[in-house]
Amino acid sequence: MKKALGLLASGFLALALTACGGSQTSSTAINEKKIVVGVTSGLHEQILEKVKEVAAKDGLEVELKVFSDFQMPNIALVEKEIDANSYQSIPFLETYKKEHKADLVGVGQTVLNPMGMYSKKIKSLDELKEGDKLGLPSDPTNSVRALMLFQSAGLIKLKDGVGDEATVLDIAENPRKLQFVELDAAQIAKQLDDLTAAAINTSYAIKNNLKPGKDSLFLEQKESKHHNIIVVRSENKDDVAVQKLVKAYQNDEVKKFVEDTFEGSVIPVW
Length: 270
What we know:
Blueprint: E1 7-9, E2 13-14, E3 34-40, H1 43-56, E4 61-67, H2 72-78, E5 84-89, H3 90-100, E6 104-112, E7 116-118, E8 133-137, H4 140-152, E9 157-158, E10 171-173, E11 179-183, E12 197-200, H5 202-207, H6 212-215, E13 218-219, E14 227-233, H7 240-249, H8 252-262, E15 267-268
Parallel strand pairs: 3-4, 3-5, 8-11, 8-12
Antiparallel strand pairs: 1-2, 5-14, 6-14, 6-15, 7-12, 7-13, 9-10
Protein name: Lipoprotein
Pfam families: Lipoprotein_9
Membrane topology: Lipid-anchor
């Protein structure tokens, strides 16, 4: 591994592990030769299939457990049904930990899946009219992310200081009097016919044949703090299997796979 992981994001998550660092064995250590990783279906599943190939060369078997929503991979990790997961951003993890008092920790950066705005009715945000409906995810973390996206696009202005606690009630300026419809993140793309436009996570966009780099009206910028991470239980953060998983993910072969497969719609960040 070319560099230490370092800090993933100021104020969110400090990481002490490096893929080439020394290992410690906990009383509940993961099997050094096999690790079970939870992923959401779609792009994370695709990437981990490649990581699985790379890890095998280092003597680590990676078994994938695929989930259809954003909550179950963390629940399964806490309940020890899986050993790690790879699908969530730092803010999402921090919110989950706060709400559920979960002892989980990030151990390695993976990719940025930029949230974008999509539409079947307009080709530019300039075409938005008074009263048009905009869809956004209903879960707190992705809802805030969508509101920040709308603000970056110049559609709204949020109240000063609301930060990561923002909700639709914190919209201070809405010059077009747009209507905001909160929906399950996995269903928004399927309901585009009923909306003027919507903020959709990359994984769900790709699953519905939308290409972020090509089809989005507005795309989250690279400076976004919503990088994804590999997450494990704190007791396992130094386990050999976890180190091998991070090393396999942060590999040039995986980086090339991501760049070639997703053509800029998914961005490696290690």
